[in-house]
Amino acid sequence: MIKIANGAYTYGTQTGFHDVNINVNRGDAVCIMGPNGSGKSTLLKTIVGLFSLENGKYTFNDQTIDKKFLKDSTKTGPFYQKFGFVFQNSDIQLFNTSVTDEIAFGPQHLGLPQHEIDQRVNDCLKLLKIERLRDRVPYHLSGGEQKLVAIASVLAMNPDIVILDEPFNGLSPKYRALITQIVNQLHHAGKTIIISSHHFNQIRSLVDRVYVFSEDHTITREITADQLEEMPRFIDYLDNL
Ligand SMILES: Nc1ncnc2c1ncn2[C@@H]1O[C@H](COP(=O)(O)OP(=O)(O)O)[C@@H](O)[C@H]1O
Ligand SMILES: [Mg+2]
Known about the structure:
241 residues, six-stranded mixed sheet, 11 helices, binds magnesium ion, ATP hydrolysis activity, nucleotide-binding, ABC transporter ATP-binding protein
């Protein structure tokens, strides 16, 4: 479904990533690992169409995703709707004055009828176990609460592919466990999951496969979670990136 061949992206003169090959199929759960600054966020933003490749080729279900495609608003709508992107910093993602409005914002933009919007808001509040927060101001919430609201607002759009950029960063064990449980639930419900992380142990129970970036901004390993379980020293390395 998501295929990047020899992909490269640079910010002016700064390399984001280069010579990257990935292939994610429907229903996969994969993790992008690598040290800080190695290219994880840049790759995720490219997958969802925020950036277009400068070299190489990105195809989504055999459609080439390039500058020309991304400029054509008649085509990008259905493409963008496939993805739910949970940004690393929830505070830049949340801008409404109540949690309910935050979750309703996406479905309202899809032009759904009010009863359907209300249904989605209630379903997402329940799934994320945040009914108690419904009238709170997102900006005033704790980091963990904000992350749950950000995930709820993304899921309200019912995306096929859920992308989470370092979702566990800065969260307490309680919130990490909650988010792990929710991501597992989404995967079992058939969603495709792409997570970035630099702690293997945090994503160990979540993903089937791991892509590993080196400091040189390219993916140097692709390895299944089962293979990794036989490689304690590599797990140690991945846990201390
Ligand atoms: N907006 C930007 N402008 C210039 N360079 C950037 C920008 N964002 C990221 N970079 C650079 O691109 C490289 C990859 O960054 P990033 O994808 O954010 O890494 P990661 O998510 O793995 O920490 C880094 O060298 C980083 O400094
Ligand atoms: Mg990042």
